[in-house]
Give the backbone structure.
Amino acid sequence: MRSLSIYMSLLTGRVFYSSVLAGKLAAEVVVDRAAGIAGVPDKAIQESVVERASKAVPKDPVGVKGEGPIAFGGGYVLSNSAKELLKQSDPELLIKMG
């Protein structure tokens, strides 16, 4: 186990580390269930969390303009209307070519 933690600490990507950890935890649950071992019981949701969630009001995302795929990070071939949207939302990304 020590060598695994040393190896993981040498990796620079935290996303990779967290996905490996999540996979390890999921595998542990599967193995426990297959062996008939009772797993760790789920934690009860605290009342303060439920209270805050019930009072929460949805907000528009900050910095997202428009409804196009560019606003939400999807790939897209730039049409004239998409170029106008990009000029509004992040003009530094739009550079003139040729």
Notes: The radius of gyration is 23 Å. The chain is about 50% helix and 0% strand. Residues 67-93 form one domain. Residues 1 and 7 are 10 Å apart (CA to CA).
